[in-house]
UniProtKB/TrEMBL annotation, chain A:
It comes from Pikeienuella piscinae. This is Phosphonate ABC transporter, permease protein PhnE. The chain crosses the membrane at residues 21-42, 86-106, 133-156, 242-263. It comes from the Bacteria. It is found in: Cell membrane. Residues 80-264 form the ABC transmembrane type-1 domain. NCBIfam families: PhnE. The lineage of its organism: Bacteria, Pseudomonadati, Pseudomonadota, Alphaproteobacteria, Rhodobacterales.
UniProtKB/TrEMBL annotation, chain B:
The lineage of its organism: Bacteria, Pseudomonadati, Pseudomonadota, Alphaproteobacteria, Rhodobacterales. GO terms for cellular component: plasma membrane. It is a multi-pass membrane protein. This is Phosphonate ABC transporter, permease protein PhnE. Its main location: membrane. The chain crosses the membrane at residues 24-45, 86-106, 244-263. GO terms for molecular function: ABC-type phosphonate transporter activity. Residues 82-264 form the ABC transmembrane type-1 domain. The gene is phnE. InterPro entries: MetI-like, MetI-like_sf, PhnE/PtxC. Keywords: Cell membrane, Membrane, Transmembrane, Transmembrane helix, Transport.
Length: 272, 272
């Protein structure tokens, strides 16, 4: 046990040996050095004049943005409807694609642990690590701007998230129920339908609503790159510096996000 | 008596699973309403199939580009963008975590007085409701283009995420350990340091690692609105249909995200 001598000849307990303490301090030093390097880089590519001017500009923008232009709401109903559709249809398509991926990725249902499981895991990681805005950029280059590109972008982005949560739920199922169904002489598909599916159904419903809620948030900004929804109005209002419209759109987005969060919490509460 | 007669009537009939929603009319209303909404959503989805057909060549070109990604011809841009993204990630994570610890303490009902609790919860709510990219747009308008706006955006988003989860963890902690420290006559700071901190530290480190991961993913898109990082390079690559460069950038993002995930897995496992 590490001890140190204290004045007066006694010995006191200490948590770490001298070597461990030194290593810890060296770690902190390296961490601080990295942070200072990062800060220097950020600082070097910043125009500090704008930063000192920031409070005035922020005040200026705020004064221009108030009051919000309430009459603009008439032009927002259609984008709001599109945004809702992008989120819902995107979640729907994502679930259709995520279910097979999840079954292929779960240790207890995958046909091959060495061949197919890694592929399924790769699909999960790669769709999850790329943001829906990047998917949207890519899809706009391929299939052109519009709501359809938004739906596909949201659905591809959501595959990894849904499949990951779903395969974890599949791995946690009670195997004895599956054995009971197998013991009746059920085929592979019947085991899936009567042994596995009922156990993961609550998790599946919970995941869908959870992802739908996230997708509402994400679909509000897809329009910034041209993929439909209320983001289109946001970007055109920003480009024309129509701050009262920007303020109204931000309020609408905020309300939509709060409502979707409330709905998703209610539905999940009812299921679980 | 009644139970027995109920059983008698059920004998010989096939068992049916009780429906999730008991009231038949509500069940039907919800089903019909849901289907009607989906039909309406599909109906408003305008797909320009000829445009999609034209785009398929580009899609194929993009997938082929993953076979031979071009790291070389724009290596300078890619390197600068990647370094900027990483720098923003590290800087924002350090600052965000440092700020979210006091706010997390303030947002835990069991250790904070009511006024502090309300203010801290308010900060968390605002930070969580505003999407990163929207915050980035506003901050770019205020602070000018460059990584400073991205850095501030990510720091702000980190606060909402980390403070909320930290506060929940503090609220769920074991009170008796804190009381034991209190009983020794410790001051407030000592109480936090010896009674609270050791209990939440492993989880705080785990969450911080997870947040670094998220911050890097987000930093990859902030460039789309001018807030620094690899997103700007990626956007240019898509605009010019330079799919081989875009593929190279996406591969790098996926590799870095996977590396971060692996690293955070190791660190979290060692913490437990």
């Amino acid at each position: 046990m590490p001890v140190r001598s204290i004045p007066g000849g006694g010995q006191a307990w200490r948590r770490r040996t001298r070597g461990e303490t030194l290593i810890r301090w060296a770690g902190w030093l390296i961490g601080v050095a990295i942070f200072v390097f990062c800060w220097n880089r950020i600082s070097a590519s910043t125009t500090w004049f704008f930063v000192w001017d920031a409070p005035r500009i922020a005040g200026d923008i705020l004064s221009r943005a108030t009051p919000p232009r309430w009459s603009y709401i008439d032009q927002l109903w259609r984008p709001i409807w599109d945004t809702l559709n992008i989120a819902t249809l995107g979640t729907l398509f994502a679930l259709i694609m995520a279910v097979p991926v999840a079954f292929l990725a779960a240790r207890n249902t995958t046909p091959s642990r060495f061949l197919i499981r890694p592929v399924a895991l790769l699909i999960i990681v790669s769709t999850r690590s790329i943001n829906s805005l990047i998917w949207a950029l890519l899809l706009i280059a391929i299939i052109g701007p519009g709501v359809f590109a938004g739906v596909i972008a949201i659905s591809i982005r959501s595959i990894g998230f849904c499949a990951k949560l779903l395969y974890e739920a599949i791995e946690e199922i009670d195997e004895s129920q599956v054995e009971a169904i197998t013991a009746t002489g059920a085929s592979r598909w019947q085991v899936m339908a009567y042994g596995v599916a009922p156990q993961i159904l609550p998790a599946f419903a919970g995941i869908s609503v959870f992802r739908w809620d996230i997708n509402i948030r994400e679909s509000t900004v897809l329009g910034l790159v041209g993929a439909g929804g209320i983001g289109l109005q946001l970007s055109s209002s920003l480009n024309t510096l129509a701050w009262p419209q920007v303020a109204l759109i931000l309020i609408v987005i905020f309300v939509a996000v709060v409502i979707s969060e409330w709905v998703s919490a209610k539905v999940r509460g009812a299921i679980i | 008596m009644t139970a027995a007669t109920e059983l008698d009537t059920l004998i010989g009939r096939k068992w049916r699973k009780p429906p999730f929603i008991k009231r038949a009319w509500l069940r039907w209303m919800l089903t019909i309403g849901g289907l009607a909404y989906l039909v309406a959503a599909f109906a408003t989805l305008e797909v320009n199939w000829s445009r999609v057909y034209e785009g398929l060549d580009r899609g194929a070109a993009f997938i082929m580009a993953f076979m031979e990604p071009d790291f070389v011809s724009r290596w300078g841009d890619i390197r600068d963008g990647m370094v900027e993204s990483l720098v923003m990630t590290v800087g924002a994570s350090v600052v965000g975590i440092a700020i979210s610890i006091p706010i997390g303490l303030g947002a835990a009902r069991n250790i904070a007085p009511l006024p502090v609790y309300v203010i801290c919860r308010g900060i968390v709510a605002v930070s969580r409701a505003l999407q990163e990219i929207i915050v980035a747009i506003l901050l770019v308008a205020i602070f000018g283009f460059g990584p400073l706006a991205g850095f501030l955006t990510l720091s702000f988003a980190t606060i909402g995420f980390l403070s909320k989860l930290l506060a929940e963890d503090i609220e769920a902690m074991d009170r008796s350990q804190g009381e034991a420290i209190r009983a020794t006559g410790a001051r407030w700071l000592q109480w936090i340091n010896y009674g609270v901190q050791p209990q939440v530290m492993p989880r705080l480190i785990g969450l911080s690692m997870y947040r670094i991961d998220i911050n890097f993913r987000e930093s990859a898109i902030l460039g789309l609105v001018g807030a620094g990082g690899i997103g700007a390079t990626l956007n240019t690559a898509f605009d010019r249909y330079e799919f081989d460069t875009a593929a190279a950038i996406l591969l790098m993002i996926i590799v870095i995200v996977m590396a971060l995930e692996y690293l955070s897995g190791i660190i979290r496992a060692r913490m437990q």
